[in-house]
Amino acid sequence: MNLLEALREKIYQDAHDSLQVALNGPFVFDTSVKQIIQMLDGHTLHLLSPKIRFETERLFQYLREYKVNVIDCTPSQLAVWIQAGFLELEERPNYVLVGGEAICPDMWRQLHNDEKTVFYNLYGPTECTVDATVCCIREKRLPSIGYPIANTQVFVLDEKLRIVPFGATGELYIGGAGLARGYLNDPKLTNERFVPHPYSNKPGDRFGKISGRWVTRVYRKK
Q: Which of 91, 123, 143, 159 is deepest in the core (most CB within 10 A)?
């Protein structure tokens, strides 16, 4: 329910009518959850078959025929769509939810400048299923994972768990309602990655250390 409310606030705040929502990702991919739960708000869910998902012309035809408002995809798949003319379609979704991979600067520039469809970059590692941050690409000139969703905390910290200055690099830590309890049957890795939360007043609260080095372009909530 936290994710559903966050998507209402971050993406669908202006959607007053029932939406046609296409589920492009497979059920085994956690991104499917954010599309499936839209039925709780009265939206219509379209389950795209593999033939439609992987054949661009069929997909475009389906989007037109059923007047799909929302679709999810990875940057790799979106690149194929763009090459096939997605940004030139007269009828295309109002919202495209992009995730699963980093968006390259050239693609970001294209999406940022597009005036017809609003593209969102959604980020959430496996440890924080499904999404931890959302960025409206139209509103940010440079690639970013954006702002934390409701009841989620995102930090870029140094090796002593101190917050690094804006523009500096550090390790990404995520805490809040969407954080997993740990890794199944792997207490050693759980203790390494899910550490006590130094910025929480809640006893026993933890946050998760996400692999890789990050630059602090995670924006504070407005």
A: 123
DSSP state of 193: H
pLDDT exceeds 90 at position 126: no
Query: What's phi and psi for 122, nearest 5 deg?
Result: -110, 130
96 DSSP β-pair partners: 71, 119
Q: Widest CA span of the chain, in angstroms?
A: 55
**CA-CA distance, 32 to 98, in Å (whole number)?**
12
Neighbours of 160 (CB within 10 A): 6
Domains in the chain: ranges and CATH: 2-148 (3.40.50.980), 152-216 (2.30.38.10)
CA angle 214, 216, 219 (to 5 degrees): 130
pTM above 0.90, yes or no: yes
* Beta-bridge mates of residue 153: 175
Question: CA-to-CA distance for 154 and 220, rounded, in angstroms?
Answer: 9
| Strand 133-136, strand 152-157: pairing | unpaired
- Beta bridge partners of residue 213, listed in sequence order: 171
- pLDDT tens-digit readout, 151-190: 999 999 999 999 998 888 889 999 999 999 999 999 999 9
